[in-house]
Task: structure prediction
Amino acid sequence: MPTDAHGHDPAITRDEVAHLAHLARIDLTEAELDHLAPQLAEILDSIASIREVAADDIPPTSHSVPLTNVFRADEVRPGLSAADALAGAPECEQQRFRVPRILGEEA
Amino acid sequence: MGDLTRMSAADLADALGRGEVSSADITQAHLDRIAAVDGDVHAFLHVNAEGALAVARESDARRSAGESRSALDGVPIAVKDVMATRGIPTTCGSRILEGWVPPYDATVVARLRAAGLPILGKTNMDEFAMGSSTEHSAWGPSHNPWDLERIPGGSGGGSSAAVAAYEAPLAIGTDTGGSIRQPAAVTGTIGVKPTYGGVSRYGVIALASSLDQPGPCARSVLDAALLHEVIGGHDPLDSTSIDLPVPPLVEAARSGDLSGVRVGVVTELGGEGYQEGVRARFDESVELMVKAGADVVEVSCPHFRYGLGAYYLILPSEASSNLAKFDAMRYGLRVLPDGVDAPSAEQVMTATRAAGFGDEVKRRIILGTYALSSGYYDAYYGQAQKVRTLISRDFAAAFEQVDVLVSPTAPTTAFKIGEKLDDPLAMYLNDIATIPANLAGVPGISIPNGLAAEDGLPTGLQILAPATADDRLYRVGAAAEALLNASWGGPLLAQAPELVGGRA
Result:
């Protein structure tokens, strides 16, 4: 991973925050970017200590309760009706969700 | 019968059982109380008056016919707005879900309905449960009944405030890093985070799926146990639900006992960073337990100090993934970007999330997206998961020496609204003592243990037990509660100022 000459992460930059916002599909304003970038850098700095504690031989825990796959009988059960499922839709048509175009203009 | 809103859920249930009062009267009394004081407290985002009264009348008909569906049949309850409630608006404190009426019930809600509890309404919360004050609610903060200028904790501050202001005898909360226990501590009420998997997450709008856990909010340990037994137990709809019987919690709460109990004081959850009055009340509570026959030792959990860092990587990572479902396509808000002809789905999604999410949600989604990015995953998320292992090992070692662990629930009493709103790090520190339990999945309770001398505001005592030993919380918690109430000559909440009401 990228580090500076002292082996530390460079502080998260405004451009990086803009890129992350794009990945997360959130349109941030210029003011939000100005505000968020230093805050995120400060938060990351405060949690950096965890990178020093855990050695390679420590297994990760994804989940506090040990889990195995959970199965159930494959039986038909009632589900939501189409009307119920569509009740909260921003737009629907012919018992389907109506969505904006998903292809590029040229497609 | 005196003021029905001042009675415990257990006493209300007994009075209903004896036919001395109707659920309709109890429910109406609480709706009247909400109408009188919620303009000031703002615990509720939605009041379900007609629905609650209809359920109350059904309960009364059952009771008249000599039937009841549960110990709490007819006792009304408030539900945190994180729970899907069929036919009742659910916003999770967010604009992105404004006006959404879920087509299904969360399992917790289904169990409340099956047990005959009228749902008074939905309580305020930090947006998507991200916060410790309710100030991140899109609908404005709730106010602490002890001092309306102060926060009632968070994220479940609506539930804690509702119970503390006698607007509801019981409430449902969810606890991902302390969102049931910390609000309980700062409002002088009881909050329990059950063992992870002890209460179903089905229908709870997910924040961090490996940490989230619903649980009871109440004004007494016994009331919390009664509610916990109604909502707890295995649910096939939640694949992380524990397939074991719920331990006898009500029995444990009724047989509170500290004699011979081995109690560990966690070295790392106290001292520097904890308000003086919080420390003083905690030390007193420990002395009280010693006098009652508990065997108290100090226990070190050296990795707890890395808990906050691990939590603020794991939580945003899981949240950024969970909140990806708010895409403006199937339900919730849809905003079209300005000045774009025939916008694409991606442009609509991006504009909708910008308009629909608040500052803290954006902050955590970006942080989680960063922590999960290629090149950073091992250094952040991977390391945080290892710290989680170390914290679980600390708990395991501690519970070899003691039956329960204790600490202050929160490092400070309720702070002023606005004080920490734009200082995320200061806000995150509120959860420093509650987070380790979520990372390890162990259960915890907060009970009121006094008022801090410097500000006269409530402090909380946290008791933690090993996974699936939730009954210990109730046995030890009820014993400590009885000792503390005896020392005050009544419950702490009786010392809260009367709400005048009127700011409708």
